[in-house]
Every structure is written in C-alpha cells, then in structure tokens.
Amino acid sequence: MIKKIIFSVLLSMQVMGAFCQDFYSLSFKDSQNNSVSLQSFSGKKIVIAVFDAAHPNEEFLKKLDTLYRNNSSTLQVIAVPLLDFGKAISNDRLTALYNRLQLVFIISQPGNGKKVSGGEQQSILQWVTNKSANKHFDNDVEEPGQLFVIDETGNLFAVMKSKVSPTSAAMTRVISTKFKKP
C-alpha cells in the first residue's frame, strides 16, 4: 500500500513563512454558502479531500468522517465536490446525502479541480496544485478520492492517491507526523 502513496515532504524552512501566510489567507464557501477562512484552522493539520460531485462515493465520505471524528482536536477535514467528472447532483440532494450520512466535517460548494478550469478552479485546489502558490507541488487533481495534507504551519505536507483510504495505517502515519523545526 505504501508504494501507492506519493509523499511530498516539505522541509524547506526558507520558504515556509512565505506560503504559510498565503494558505491561511484563503477562504471558500461551504455547502451551506457560509464563508470559511482557513486562518481559523491554523495549528491543525488539514486534509483536503476531493470527490466526484456527480456520483459521491458514500464509503469514502464515511471514512473521511471517521478520520475527522477520531482526530478532531488536531485535524480539520475539508471535502471538495468536483465538477470535473460530470454535472453535480443538486444542492438539495447533496445536502440530503450529507445529512443522511451524518457527516460533521466541512464540505465546500462544488467546484472545478483541474487547472484547465483556469480562474474557475476551486481556490484551495488552486493552491495545492500550483507550485507558484505552494512552492513545491505542480500537478493537477488526478482523480476523485485524492487527498492533500497541509501541516500545522500551512505547508503542503503530503499528496495521496485514491488508493489510500482515509482510515488506512498510511494515513494515520501521515497525520501523526509532527513537523520538526531545525
């Protein structure tokens, strides 16, 4: 399973301050149209999870919820429903799904994940997929179920493919890793 994990460990202290501020300056709209500032999660790890807005994977969402509930004092989960893979189900149906599954983590409004979306790319995904913003990672969102982990200081810490379950031992190791300052 570990072979299927792509880790981008970022230890460059030289650029840390520059992009921490940029990450925490971002905000987005949640599924209820409330503005959410990432600054409010400073000091916690953040898992950005993407899923197909046209065909939400209930098992994946439940595992994200378990991850969040088991680590809520040190972790924030933000799920982004992607429009890249088909037209999203209605907001009413998405809300009904979230309520039926009793999800407690934050879900953003549906948005585009791929860079080809240009200015329409969801703001958090624009940050995690562009080296000019995060200073290290310059790949596109590849698939539903992909996970991006931001450390407690706002650094992009790990990128994991959909083969890695949010409740796997590999994910537990990633979110348990403490960033060590030299």
TrEMBL record:
<protein>
    <recommendedName>
        <fullName>Redoxin domain-containing protein</fullName>
    </recommendedName>
</protein>
<dbReference type="GO" id="GO:0006979">
    <property type="term" value="P:response to oxidative stress"/>
</dbReference>
<dbReference type="InterPro" id="IPR000889">
    <property type="entry name" value="Glutathione_peroxidase"/>
</dbReference>
<keyword id="KW-0575">Peroxidase</keyword>
<dbReference type="GO" id="GO:0004601">
    <property type="term" value="F:peroxidase activity"/>
</dbReference>
<keyword id="KW-0732">Signal</keyword>
<feature type="signal peptide">
    <location>
        <begin position="1"/>
        <end position="20"/>
    </location>
</feature>
<dbReference type="InterPro" id="IPR036249">
    <property type="entry name" value="Thioredoxin-like_sf"/>
</dbReference>
<keyword id="KW-0560">Oxidoreductase</keyword>
<comment type="similarity">
    <text>Belongs to the glutathione peroxidase family.</text>
</comment>
